[in-house]
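The freezer alarm interrupted the setup, so I double-checked each line after restarting. Inputs confirmed:
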Amino acid sequence: MADAPLFERLCLIGSGLIGGSIARAAREKGGIARRVVAQSRRPETLARVRELGFADEVEADPARAVEGADCVILCVPVGAYAGVMERIAPRLSPGCVLSDAGSTKGSVLRDLQPLLPEGVHLVPAHPMAGTEHSGPDAGFATLFEGRYCILTPPEGTDPAAVERIAELWRRCGSSVEFMDAATHDKVVAIVSHLPHLIAFTICGTADDLAEETREAVLKFAASGFRDFTRIAASDVDMWRDIFLNNREALLEMLARFTEDAQALARAVRWGEAGFIEDRIRRGRRIRRGLIERKQA
Amino acid sequence: MADAPLFERLCLIGSGLIGGSIARAAREKGGIARRVVAQSRRPETLARVRELGFADEVEADPARAVEGADCVILCVPVGAYAGVMERIAPRLSPGCVLSDAGSTKGSVLRDLQPLLPEGVHLVPAHPMAGTEHSGPDAGFATLFEGRYCILTPPEGTDPAAVERIAELWRRCGSSVEFMDAATHDKVVAIVSHLPHLIAFTICGTADDLAEETREAVLKFAASGFRDFTRIAASDVDMWRDIFLNNREALLEMLARFTEDAQALARAVRWGEAGFIEDRIRRGRRIRRGLIERKQA
Ligand SMILES: NC(=O)c1ccc[n+]([C@@H]2O[C@H](COP(=O)([O-])OP(=O)(O)OC[C@H]3O[C@@H](n4cnc5c(N)ncnc54)[C@H](OP(=O)(O)O)[C@@H]3O)[C@@H](O)[C@H]2O)c1
Ligand SMILES: NC(=O)c1ccc[n+]([C@@H]2O[C@H](COP(=O)([O-])OP(=O)(O)OC[C@H]3O[C@@H](n4cnc5c(N)ncnc54)[C@H](OP(=O)(O)O)[C@@H]3O)[C@@H](O)[C@H]2O)c1
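Predicted 3D structure, all chains:
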């Protein structure tokens, strides 16, 4: 592996779970970057990043943070990209690779491409790894090991820049896959964003029940509901931004899901056993598919 | 604990996950029953129950199985209750306690009470424990430990009979709670039945996607979708019967959930960040409630 590091100066805009994990991986695994600059917005987060010591430099101002960096990775909620880009675009060095870790990818092209300076290479990425925790304390060097990282470089992107970001993720322990942004957004809408929307919603539905039933719900939450709320325990800003920035794909998947749920409800109402059995069997089939792929 | 066993002859109608677990608990924990009769329908299951040896007697015919029993527990899918009751009712011994382990409780009263012989006590129960596996091999003696068991005896039931069933579950390691059947059915509709309906549905929705996206879905199934499919890997007959026998409460909860999901979808469509944040926060609040109750 890795003799010379891939980058001289890696700048992470945002130092939470994802930024903090990339910084730790760069430090512990080697071959990724000679120096790591970690940026964060709030003084509390900055102080904590300094204490944790996972970066060589800590910066509050994104424009100063990106100066001289040959790689910049945005690790902030996707709704903050446009504002951040306005501030950093004038300071990005020629030849720099601009990447990100955001959970939506169409919005990244929309928000970053118009301001992209000549000679800066845009290589959007989405590491399919995470936990329900957030902030700089939540990160760890092995977060990305054995997980996929999806790259969605726009057509015509410099292949050398793409390869360096791909190699960064491989050195973090991930398998790299390529996809266009639209396909990415559809896939994550169904595997991740819709399940989260459903989980947040069903918690609210339970919370609205009459006091007596609600108490019992909390008491008897069977495994079904527990798995749902596990999903629901995630960061508010991040999920608000994901929903708003993957709107089309998310609403499309929700519409399909709702039609399917209504069809099943109709079968329940009219006692159509065969239809219900068919739906249950399909669920089991997908589940088996996942197990065979060792993803379950 | 327990000097004399609670029952002389305990008959389990159905010897799958639940029946097989009660039988094993009775054998391993003591104080529950002097003899255990395990009934099952198919020759394969009967043969396997004999091999596993968790019962003193193994029977194919439910009418013969209940003869002389002072406790009978139905451990078959709830849709089979009416048919089973027709066969066993004439053979139930006077003073016998008839109970069950079904996941719906209104339907139990509907299907069993009309045929209940004089002097037989009906004490419906629902152990809030289970796995995604089924059949006699799936059972184990500790399945019910540390879990709730909900009893829904109809008004006027002999208190001594109720207490014996309560004590049976305590000796299996469960905490016993009382509820009326209608409340029970609402609670499980939201904590368990609706989550399962959603999980089965979303698997189908994913399965219907264009071939290319579907392959990617299986590949990139993030934790969100994985938790859903874990729920979806359950027995077909059991879930068909649960949906059909808790129809009113399930459709009511699905209707509420759908309204709430549509409200969230509308907020996503119109970019109402505050509304979205509020829904996410509520999800986190319920989650915290669960953790505080050590149910998560
Ligand atoms: N968590 C996951 O499971 C996961 C998985 C894959 C991808 N992602 C993506 O990775 C990105 C970061 O997520 P994360 O989990 O690392 O979040 P996080 O732990 O909450 O950290 C967020 C970071 O972004 C900064 N930030 C928040 N709002 C900002 C704003 N409006 N303007 C500028 N900076 C802001 C925070 O700074 P302060 O603390 O100083 O405010 C913090 O440094 C997101 O785009 C997310 O979609 C997350
Ligand atoms: N699994 C759970 O998580 C769980 C939790 C709480 C309560 N329950 C309830 O417990 C009951 C049993 O569930 P289980 O998980 O033990 O199921 P299981 O493992 O599939 O076993 C079902 C048993 O019922 C018999 N059976 C199936 N269909 C029948 C029919 N139409 N007529 C007569 N007998 C039939 C089977 O006999 P053969 O094998 O001989 O066909 C088998 O002995 C259900 O009412 C369920 O709602 C289940």
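Quick read of the result. Residues A 14-19, 40-42, 45, 75-78, 80, 84, 101-103, 127, 130, 134-135, 138, 235, 237-238, 242 surround NAP (ligand 1) (CB under 6 Å).
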